[in-house]
Amino acid sequence: MEFNISLVGQAITFALLVLFTMKFVWPPLTNMMDERAKRIADGLAAAERGKQDLEAAEKRVADEMNKARQQATEIVMAAEKRASQIVDEAKDTARAEGARIVAEAKSEVDQEVLRAKETLRAHVADLAVAGAEKILRREIDPARHADLLASIKAEF
Q1: Which residue windows are transmembrane per the record (predicted)?
Q2: Whether 121 contacts 153, CB under 8 Å
């Protein structure tokens, strides 16, 4: 009988232990496990959000890099175009300056030719007068010869 009483005592103790555990121990344990599960879930969600944010940031970086490359290409193209314009402007300026210098040189040459012709005419006239004077020294009318020589001088 002692065995039955001992078994019943153990059963009652076990039942009291189960009731005590269910009433006082089990709720805090389940709360802690629920809180831990929630923290783990929050951590996983945050990691997933971080992963998505990282992917979005990488995409934005790639987009910005493409924009920067495109802008750099546009800047280089604009610089090359401006350099070409500057070279063309310099060529046009040099051509205009060269044409002006050539025109001035032609004008100076023409003036020098006219001066040389005038000087040559004067020398030829002087020579003609000197030659005619020597040949015609015996002639009586010097005024008439002066008129004749002036007309000859004007013709040349």
Answers
A1: 6-26
A2: yes
Residue 81: the pLDDT is: 93
CA distances from residue 78 to 45, 66, 88 in whole angstroms, order as listed: 49, 18, 15
pLDDT tens across 101-149, in order?
999 989 899 898 898 888 888 887 777 777 667 666 655 566 776 777 7
Cα separation of 129 and 147, whole Å?
11
Q: Which amino acid is at 105?
A: A
* Cα separation, 139 vs 130, whole angstroms: 14
Q: Which amino acid is at 31?
A: N
Cα gap 126→155, rounded to integer Å: 14
Whole-number Å distance between alpha carbons of 138 and 142: 10
**Integer Cα distance of 50 and 44 in angstroms:** 10
The mean of the pLDDT values for the chain is 87
Beta-carbon contacts of residue 132 (< 8 Å; ≥ 6 apart): 145, 149
Which token pair is 122? 């004067």
What gap in Å lies between CA 112 and CA 93, rounded to an integer? 28
